[in-house]
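Worked example

This section walks through a single chain of length 384. The input is the sequence exactly as stored; nothing has been trimmed or padded.
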Amino acid sequence: MPGSTSKKSLPNLEKAPNQRIGDALADLLRDRIATMSVGDQMPSVRQLMRRYNVSMLPVTQALKQLESENLILAIKGKGTFISPQRHDKLIMLHRSFYNSSSESKRERNVREAIKRVEGWNFVARYHESIPQSPASFEEEPIASAHIVACDLSHLRPDLLRELAEQKVPVLLIDNVSPHGANFDTLAIDESQVFMRSLEYLRDLGHRKTAWLLNEPHFHNNEGHDERFLKSLDQLGLPPGLILDCDTVPGTSSREMAYRHLRGYFAALDGALPFTALIVGSPSGGIGALRACHDFGVRVPEDLTLVVITGTVLENRLCVPALTEAFRSNYLESEYIVRILKARFAGAEPADHRMDVRMDLAERESSGPPPPSPVVPRELKPSVL
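Given that input, the structure is written out below as tokens.
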């Protein structure tokens, strides 16, 4: 018989649910399919029932699973055959609906890197940061591997549990701690994230610097406050001020930067204690510009602004254009492909680290410190 299998019994699952029997049968058939050629015919449903001494339901469940994985192809009236797409792999990226320019850029980079690999396909799925209902993949195509962005890996344990049950590689991005033996992690080592900016500000003459943390804590900014203070110390600069906006998922990081900095200016009794402000994201830089405008703080004459970003963006279109510190060797997508290739080749899950170097795009928002202390004063609304 074409594609016939040797007599091989299933595990002792007589009292197990049909779904577990179907999963076990699918595992056995995957092993057999790996030795067959494209176009070979599979045994019929009834032949598989007799061979493995199981009912029709788990057999049809196993075949449906294998077909969803592009391993087999059912042709009505002819039978089931080894699919010409059996070597294709579907890589699924999971990210939140949270509007982040860096996450959108990551999606584009990963999509391009995945599609450059022959036989690999890419799809992105978006999830609520705060679940409205448990994660479910019943209506989704079966993925060969999953990539999970940092925010979801922290906020959606139900999603991780659902992905773990699929028994395929799951790679967690921007994580600093492992989530269990079944997951790969890729931590972005950003120990130098502030060094380039602070060296630049020091060379301009700034010695008093503040850090506006306007992104939610699940983003790449975990530990950035310690890195900020450590970098200042390494450069021989005095300790800086940390302004935490307490941004939570689902809120605008631009609006939170504006509100927090505006509130800080309003409550300040006297002159600004810093001459340069590093902001956690490009959108936060826009919020900071607006707060400065409301309180008559001129950029860069009174205050220098530098924003941290994953990739260089079009903030030169702002007025004034924002100086950006960005990842100059951002090869995350290549790391991801390398990790997945190793997993598909049989490697065990592992924790990975990737070093990045920051570069700087100097624009109009930066300059030397002001000659005298600056006292913010809220401007009166314009009369139209």
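What to look for: The longest strand covers residues 89-96.
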